[in-house]
Amino acid sequence: MVECRVAHLSSHHQPVDNRIFQRECRSLADAGYTVHFVVRNPVDEVRDGVHIMAIRTPRNRLERVTVTAFHVFRRALESKARIVHLHDPELIPWGFLLRALGRTVIFDVHEDFAQAAGVRSWIPRPLRGLVAHGWSGLAWLASRAFHIVIAERYYARTFPRSVNVLNYPHLERSAALRSVARTATQADRIRLIYAGSVTISRGAELHARLATLLPGCLIHFCGHMSRATADAIRRASGDATIGVIAEDGAVAWERRSDRPDAELSTILLEGVDYYVTDQMVAALQQSWTAGLSLFPYSEHYYEKELTKFFEYMAAGLPLIVSDFPNWRAIVDGTRCGLAIDPERLDIAADLIRHLHASPAERLAMGERGREAVEGRYSWTSQRQNLLDFYGSLAR
Fold first, then answer.
1. Strands 241-245 and 251-254: what pairing?
2. Is 223 left (phi over 0), alpha (psi -120 to 50) or beta?
3. CATH number of the domain enclosing 257
């Protein structure tokens, strides 16, 4: 049993975040650490052995990086944790103060924030370069004051003295996905799923446009999305019938054409202004032709290994991804899907039709992907990296 109190701190993420809560916090709690998670939540509670310490949800980004960040710091002090693990860049200044107060501080790099500034629509375009430089300077300071954990291998170029804790899927979750035969073999329509955060930069409009090229198909968006993104999907999907799935599972249908049902595509939107967790597992357990990750060209994503790839693979689904070099390497290396130019949706539609007409090929791709997750891309190895790292700090 490890006698050590630790606190994970976030001003931005949801309380059941896959990386922070499901993987890191639960793994540490299972290993015997006393784990606190300071995060926006209605009430303090204990969930799966993790002590959730609630902070109020900020009303806007300015409040998040100022008032909310201070509340996170205050609750971190209340936790009396010896090790504090930061998950958002606005917490870095408070991390310096925590270090001055004698805490061991870890900063968890979830993404390349400097590069991300170039695709954040809420940052005015003239300011994006300034924001990127500001982040780079803050990252330089953090790398010298804190211990660094990285979620992607290529972040090591910025943080050479870092520990890999990569975003591979939890085998417990993968087991749930394996429990059902998911790859559609007899479906009379093409069924496509996108699981994860739904934004324009993550291909929301491209995926929606497939509805106009594949008449009669079903495309399910399962993940948190803003109302503005949902409206963009509506506009991009032509006259497809829209089904908006509420948090309680009720579906509100929007029929926008008098054409026969067989000619109309269907778009399902699950997660409009709310976060999905268990719903995503349930959605992936259904039968699908393929899992979608057709993102528009952006340097921000070129080298990433998206968690959704491994979720699709664990579910036995073929992948349809943009032909970014690292993404193609994953798909071609495991022969579990297709890498396609995201600017040629006509080609993507033709290849999806081919997959739909070739159930044996789909099943083989899905099985190869599932084997790759179990042998190469599982959380088990990363969990050990995390525990070894914490063990070295707790001594």
1. antiparallel
2. left
3. 3.40.50.2000
